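Question thread 4412

I'm putting together a teaching handout and wanted feedback from people who do this every day. The idea is simple: show students a protein as raw sequence, then show them the structure tokens that encode its fold, then repeat with a second protein so they can compare. Below is the first pair exactly as I plan to print it.
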Amino acid sequence: MTSILITGAGTGFGRLLAFSLARRGHAVHAGVEITSQIGVLRQEAQAQGLALNVSKLDITSPRDRAHVLREDFDILVNNAGIGQGGSLADMPDDVLRHQYEVNFFATVALTREYLHARRNSGATRVIFMSSIGGILTVPFAGAYCGSKHALETVAQSMHLEFAERDVTIATINPGPYQTNFNDLIMEGPRYWQSDRDLFDHSKLTFDMPQYKDDQDVETMADITLDPRSRFRNILPRELEQHIREQEQAIWNW
């Protein structure tokens, strides 16, 4: 049985992945950002007959990080993240900084602390839940994509640095799924937009087709558990060639 810590497990992929791995018989610790999510997730797990350890884990809180790392985990799944839409030309500094604080700085801090806690503890694995937005960039999502681009660099650097040790690193790069995350990204500017903005954010929406939220969760679980998986894993797999072509096309701009 493998012990696994999943951050941001109150909603979206974190929640679905926690259930999937628990169903497989692994010891899953689901970290959730706010206390109110604890009871809800526990009840859902109980209704499914699953053993799931749930606790508050705001990854921006050093206290929360230290508390959860009192327990030993074979695998860390960095799933917690936020999305902020809107033009970078208009986005307030504090909004932009918070985007990076969660998706980059706090994620890196937890990973660093986890790796130190696992020193000489045997096989260790870190999963970064990134995005296709960590490879490509779309209009009015520059803050989110930028934070994921930064996270990709950290993941790749660690992947190379730990190549000769018993530590494996991988990224999962989901495309658009119906987790409600993409739609909420585009709602962000409604809370900070002003009449001085260069762009009208009032009608900003996420208009790309989206895949069913649980379509590839079992594949994500397979990647999480398999230290021999590829470093980068774009899902759904059918998007991989399209992403490769788009990335190559950037050189011709």
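The second pair follows. I'd like the answer to focus on this one:
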Amino acid sequence: MKAIVVEKFGGPEVLRLRDVPEPKPGPGQVLVALKAIGVNPVDTYIRAGTYTRKADLPWTPGTDAAGFVETAGAGASFKPGERVYVYGAVGGVYAEKAVVDASRAFPLPERLSFEQGAAIGVPYATAHRALFQSGGARRGETVLIHGASGGVGVATVQLALAAGLIVIGTAGGEDGASFLKSLGVSYALDHRKPGYLDEILKLTDAKGPDLIVEMLANVNLADDLRLAAQRGRVVIVGSRGPVPIDPRLTITKDLTVRGMSLWNMNEAEREHVHADLGKGLADGTLKPLIGARFPLAEAFKAHAAILAPGARGKIVLIP
């Protein structure tokens, strides 16, 4: 079968399509024929060798995908032919097939395409954990989603609206703000426009947002500390480098600033998150949006695209 293999850390050009042996499922595992694969920013960091978690080379990237069960190992609670989305695989998912522990495979509702299924694992679980496990979001609160137009941003918007939160979202350009309005965001702002931070304060009667979900902390964290409400919470989902901040702002406001990573979830937390997501996916409350598609062989183009400004939904690879 075909798979993307990284043999040395580096730029997108190190992503090479190779012939590899087809994996075999063991007890409690399933072999999934993949129809779509999700691309996440963390894939690019690991590929470059700059992430805190180093991959053992040779390495096949990816954690998110969707397809159908081809074969099931002993004790696996799936049957051949079942549609599933997966989060995590034994050997990566930038491939035509992948072996997955049955606990990391979840039923994919018929109403969703395989491409949408590949957009669930990291984005929606990250959004859920950021809002509720780390952020303690409560109905009626105001949440600022900084960088709301990407895969995680769209998921956070949908979950926040479903939970009865007042959503302020930012994106790049007027077209980005229009995209957020199409998602149902009442207050959609262009974060390239001068004065947009003042607009956030006006929208909250100078109190600031109760919760800020931050996708790019190295750019926005210092402003987040100034914007947040008294006893507000800032949850850091992503950052691409260091940033100078004034810690006194956390003192004067009694702010809580938390980082979060899906790698730190335990099994009980993961089961709860995906059970909750399953309800929203089944009833149509949650609708993953696809921003761009690339053939598996062009994974290098997807890695360049996901770090470019102006994201609109999820980028997927098609085997």
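Top answer:
Good format. For the second protein you could add a caption like this: The chain is about 30% helix and 25% strand. The two ends are 10 Å apart (CA to CA).
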